[in-house]
Design brief:
8% of the residues lie in helices and 38% in strands. The protein is mainly beta. It has a seven-stranded mixed beta sheet with strand order 4-2-5-7-6-1-10, covered by helices on one side. Strands 11, 12, 15, 18 and 19 form a five-stranded mixed beta sheet that branches. α1 (65-78) crosses α3.
């Protein structure tokens, strides 16, 4: 029996330090897969979610256990509803509060995995511990949230999002390793607020394409919707292991990432379509990339071989240091740049001034360049590019490339196109009368345009479970917390007004999409019963 440990590393929301390192051995590129036999997992969530009264860390004491459990269950079930993989999860509750051998549980108050050094208490927010046999079959897998970090199921300020963390850890439970594709839930590091003054990036609880396709390859359906591209990575004719390879679609999407193995071979599991396979340096953005021409996956179940990638000689670097936007004249770097469709934005990146001029190659027609890139004399390391996002651009993550002379590199999905919400009215759900006063416990209908990228309806995860705090990639923030959502559509959001924290006489209602928390705000008076 072997033990595999993985942890989620997120920078604390109220600090601006460097991203912490991830724990655990890397499986990508080693030709190893962990899996559950028949794709079936029985997982139990501890009923106890709070530390004893008076504790200043752990799950916020203002949150009900049912709200925590709902966020956990929704995160877990997201992996069973991709439509591309054969996975079954049996979810229930347990009175156990500590990890125990042979049990598959989720705990919120157990410090043992961190106190014993199995996971780092300084760097990790949650930890998955799995045992497996020589063939890779998982025998048990448990998740522990570190209770001496601030945690929240309601996206409270200065607390880590339990729903997002659980989505990440559930990927590890199912056998997935960390990903290097930026929009993947399985990304090893995710700085949610890396730069002082930058907008807070909303923790979207959605699986990325790389997550879904990795799961589908691990637990294939009888009629798998995916094909494969295979090849080798070489430099000067010699095989190279550990090279990151990305499949980039003709629309600029990255549906899968892989790492070349000991024999330099790789495999990308992809839906039918045309792709370019791009190889880049394994240590972050920057470097001169190698690439194939167009490679076709003609149909599901097929394999396209011979997509070999030749890397250029070592030493040529583009050294893109960060990406972000310029807002109010100031640059804000962020791990994912959210661009609202139907609007113009000032996209930017930083790099050493000696690199010279660079060109941004954007995913047209979703994102169009307006003029040429430029660098202000006062900040020669900054490259600014005005862009316009098409009003009907599909939401989701995109890649873009940077070119300097004959050198280029592809950044792995650092752009995320989000909806551009516009509020028109707020009505009482029962009377359909326009309201200006918010009453806790009442149901309301928010009408407008582009409020959500997709339509979605809340589902009860267990008896008496509260409604989801997030649907269709959007949420409603009311003061210091998020509203339970019944349904979302592009033109309508139905929600319940929750009990509000504090004694404010009025509250701002914000439609939240990515980091765009101020895009559709309404000031409402609060009725105190």
């Amino acid at each position: 029996m072997k033990i595999w440990v993985h942890a989620a590393s997120l920078v604390f929301l109220c600090s601006f330090g460097p991203a912490p390192l991830s724990a655990g051995a890397s499986l990508r590129g080693q030709g190893k897969n962990l899996f559950w036999r028949d794709g079936k997992v029985a997982l139990r969530a501890s009923r106890t979610v709070h530390l004893p009264e008076g504790a200043s860390t752990g799950v916020d004491p203002r949150e009900r256990a049912s709200e925590v459990h709902a966020a956990v269950f929704q995160a877990i079930r997201a992996w069973t509803r991709t439509g591309k993989a054969r996975v079954e999860l049996d979810l229930a509750f347990t009175d156990a509060q500590t990890l125990a051998a042979g049990e598959n549980i989720v705990t919120f108050t157990d410090t043992a995995p961190f106190d014993t050094g199995l996971c780092s208490k300084e760097r990790h927010l949650s930890c998955t511990v799995s045992t497996f046999g020589e063939d890779g079959a998982v025998q048990s897998s448990s998740v522990a949230f570190y209770p001496h970090k601030k945690l929240s199921a309601l996206e409270l300020d200065c607390a880590h999002d339990i729903g997002l963390l659980m989505m990440h850890e559930m990927g590890h439970v199912l056998g997935l390793d960390h990903s290097f594709v930026t929009d993947s839930v399985m990304l090893a590091e995710a700085e949610l607020e890396p730069v002082a003054g930058a907008p807070r990036v909303f923790s979207v609880r959605e699986l990325g394409e790389d997550d879904v396709n990795t799961l589908a390859a691990l637990y294939p359906l009888t009629d798998s919707p995916l094909g494969r591209i295979t090849g080798t990575a070489t430099r000067n004719g010699a095989p190279v292991k550990g090279v990151r390879l990305l499949a980039v679609s003709t629309q600029g999407r990255i549906p899968f990432g892989a790492v070349s193995g000991e024999d330099s071979r790789y495999a990308l599991h992809l839906p039918p379509g045309d792709y370019t396979v791009v190889a880049d340096a394994p240590n972050g953005p920057g470097g001169k990339a190698g690439a194939t021409g167009t490679v076709k996956v003609p149909a599901a179940g097929t394999e396209t071989s011979g997509a070999d990638v030749a890397l250029p000689p070592v030493g040529v670097k583009l050294n893109v240091e960060s990406v972000g936007v310029v807002q109010n004249g100031a640059y804000a770097g962020m791990p994912r740049v959210d661009l609202a469709r139907g609007r113009d934005h000032n996209l930017a990146l930083t790099r050493p001034p000696e690199l010279g001029g660079v060109e941004l190659i954007l995913p047209e027609p979703a994102v169009l360049r307006l003029g040429n890139a430029s660098s202000p004399a006062s900040a020669p390391q900054l490259v600014r590019q005005n862009v316009r996002v098409a009003a009907q651009a599909p939401t989701g993550s995109y890649a873009f490339a940077v070119r300097a002379g004959l050198n280029f590199t592809v950044l792995a999905a650092p752009l995320r196109i989000v909806n551009n919400p516009r509020v028109e009215s707020l009505c009482d759900f029962e009377t359909l009368e326009t309201v200006t006063v918010l009453r806790a416990g009442r149901r309301y209908v928010l009408a407008g345009s582009d409020l959500a990228g997709t339509a979605a309806t809340a589902e009860a995860e267990f008896e008496d479970a509260p409604l989801a705090a997030q649907l269709g990639g959007v949420a409603l923030r009311l003061g210091s917390r998020f509203a339970p959502l019944l349904s979302v559509k592009p033109n309508e959001i139905v929600f319940d007004a929750p009990p509000l924290f504090g004694d404010a006489a009025e509250v701002s209602l914000l439609v939240v999409a990515g980091s765009l928390m101020e895009s559709a705000a309404v000031k409402l008076a609060v009725a105190r019963e």
